[in-house]
Amino acid sequence: MARFKADLHVHTADDPYDPVGYSAETMIDCAAEAGVEVLAIACHGAVAYGPRLAEYARRRGVLLIPAIEALVEGKHVLILNPDPEHARAKTFASLRRAGRREAAIIAPHPFFPVPVSLGAKLIEHVDLFDGIEYCFFHFAGVNFNRKAAAVAHRYGLPLLGTTDTHRLPYSPSTFSWVDAEPSIGGIIDAIRSGRVDVETRPRTFAEVSGTIVEIAKYVAGRPWSRQRRRTSSRD
Question: What is the rounded average pLDDT of the residues 72-76?
Answer without folding.
Answer: 97
